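Mods, move this if it's the wrong board.
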Amino acid sequence: MTVSTIILAAGKGTRMRSPTPKTLHKIAGRYLVSFSVELSKDIKSKETIVVVGKETELDTRKALSDHKVKFCVQNTQLGTGDAVKIALKNLKIKTKHTLVLYGDTPFITKGTIRRMISRAEKGFEFVFLGFKSQTKNSYGQFKLGPKRTLIDIIEKNEPGYTSSKCFSNSGILLAQSNIITDLITKIKSDNSKKEYYLTDIAKMAAKCGYSSTYVQCKEDECLGVNSQLELSIAERKFQNDFRKKLMASGVSMLSPETCFFSYDTIIKSGCTIEPNVIFGTGVTVQSSTIIRSYSYIEGTQIGKHCQIGPFARIRPGTTLSEKVKVGNFVEVKNASFAPGSKANHLSYIGDAKIGTNTNIGAGTIFCNYDGKNKHTTVVGNDVFVGSNTALIAPLKISDGSIVAAGSAINRDVPPESLAIARPMQQNKIGLAKKIMLKLQKLAGKVKK
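Not the wrong board. C-alpha cells:
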C-alpha cells in the first residue's frame, strides 16, 4: 500500500504563551513536529507535506531543513478541513491512501499506524484513530454503528455532544486518497466556530456509502500539546518511557526519575547512571561505563569502561575512548581522549587531541581562544601534565614528556622532555618575620 502524509502544523498555539511556534517547542531535544515527520518516514511515506501558518512558515522550514518534506501555507485559520484541502492540492505523488497527522501529537507509534493500514487493506475507505478517555475532555466523540463502523464524529459545543466518558477522536485519519480529495471540497462551515471540520467527513462518507472504521490506542499515545503544562506532561511521559527501555536493556539507574535523556541518547548495557545526570542530544555511551552524579553531557561519544564525573561537563565534539576518566569539575569541549588517559579534577580541555595513558593534572587550562580564533593543542602518549598548568594553543606536547606544575607553556615540547615555564623561586631569609611585625604594628594603629 502506498501512503502520502499530511502533517497539520498551522495552529498559532496561543495557549503556549510563547514567541516560539507551538510545534517548534521541544520534547527531549526534538521539535514536536519532528516526531510526526519521523513517523511518516518510518512508514515509508511517498510524500510528506507540512501545513504551516504564514506566521510560522519561515521558522518551521528552518527547523525541518534536514528533512525531505514539502510545505504549504494556510493563510487563514479556517479549521482542519480547510488545512487538509490545501495540502491535498499540493500533493504531487499519487498514492492509494493519505495519512493525516498533527504536529503537536508526538507519541503516535508506527505500530498503531500499521494497524490502521491493515484495516484499510480490508476494504475500509476511512480509518480513524480513537481512544477511551479516563476523564472528561474536549476531543470529538465517535458515534459508532454496527460491526466497528463509524457513522459520525461530534465536536464539542455541537449538537449531540455529551459530557459523559466515551470513545474520543484523536484526529489521526487514514483515508483513500481519491475519495477524501472529493469529499473534502464538500465540507461546510455551518457550526459554532464557523470552521471547516475535518471530522465532518465521517458523516459525509456514511451518507455517500463509504465505509469508515476505527482503531483504538491508549489515551497517552494521543497526548496533544497545547500549553506549557501539557508540554511538561509530554516530557515526563517521554522520560519515563525512555528510562524503562534503558533499564530493560541492562542499564543501571540508582534514581531514574532524576536522570534526563534526549530522543537520540544511546546507552549500552552494563552502564551505571548515578542520580541527577542530564544527556543532551548526540550522546552515545558504550558498555560498562559509569556516569557519576550531576554530570551534563551532549554531543559526545564515550567508550567502554570509562568513568565520568561527578560534576563533569562534556560538550559537543568530544570523543572519549575506553578506560578514560573525566572527573569532578572538568569541562571538555571538542576534544578526543585516547585509551587510558585521564583528567581527574578541576580542568578545562578544549580543542584538543590527547594520546594514550596521559594524565592532565588538576587545574590545567587549555588556552584555545586568542580572542578571535580557536586553536588546537595536541598532547601525545604517556604525557604527564602537572597541576595548575596553562597550555597555550597552538601547541604540541610530544610523547613521554612532563610539564612541570604551575607552568605556562606556549612552545612545542620535544619527546621525553621536561618543560618548565615559571619564574625561578627566590627565598628571602627572615623577610616574612619583618613583614608580619610591620603588619601587626599597622593593625594596632588602626585599632587605636
